[in-house]
Amino acid sequence: MFQVWYVFQFDNNIHKADMAQEAENKDIDQYHYSKNLDNAVQYLSFALGREEYGVDILRVQEIRSWEPVSRIPNVPCYEKGVVNLRGSIVPILDLRERFNLSKAEYTPLTVVVVLQTGDSNKPRIMGVVVDSVSDVISVDKTEIQGAPDFGTKVSNEFINGLVSVNERMVMLLDVDKLLKLEDLDQVES
Prior knowledge:
By secondary structure, the protein is an alpha+beta fold. It has a single domain (41-188), classed as CATH 2.40.50.180. The chain is 29% helix and 38% strand. It contains four helices and ten strands. The chain has helices at residues 2-39, 95-98, 175-178, 181-188; strands spanning 40-48, 51-56, 60-65, 79-85, 88-94, 111-117, 124-130, 132-140, 159-165, 168-173. The strands form two sheets. The protein has a five-stranded mixed sheet with strand order 8-1-2-10-9. The longest helix is centred in the first third of the chain and has 38 residues, at 2-39. It is globular and about 45 Å long. The protein starts with a helix and ends with a helix.
């Protein structure tokens, strides 16, 4: 009986040592977590085909399931039309077509990410059709790499940067450039 108690006592001491080490690790993790928060930015990631993209989470107003749009004549093919979103008319753009990717049928997984663009003095709301939403990713600003230069034949004007998250490459998009606000400003003038 003494040996059983001794083993229990020994296991208990190991357990206490493990708990102390775990608490120390939590303190270290908490330090790194709070330190990383200073450099952290969050992106909503989504899929277009087999590629993954991200937009600044602070620009996302909401995520909606696909619904038919009212078509507008004489607009580029990637501009699908408009929807009424709680009394506001919201233009809807198909990112697959905007990026010259192959067309895909809209499915129950197809979603519209409603984004706020422009500055605080003149905000605009626009929706972009994507294949599916993946998740919200937190990225250390120092880990974001610049957009690669492919020369003059390939445009990377919409890409703010690239980041590797869990062994997958995510292209971070510039919302204002993506939605061509300067073109809209010229039309409104």
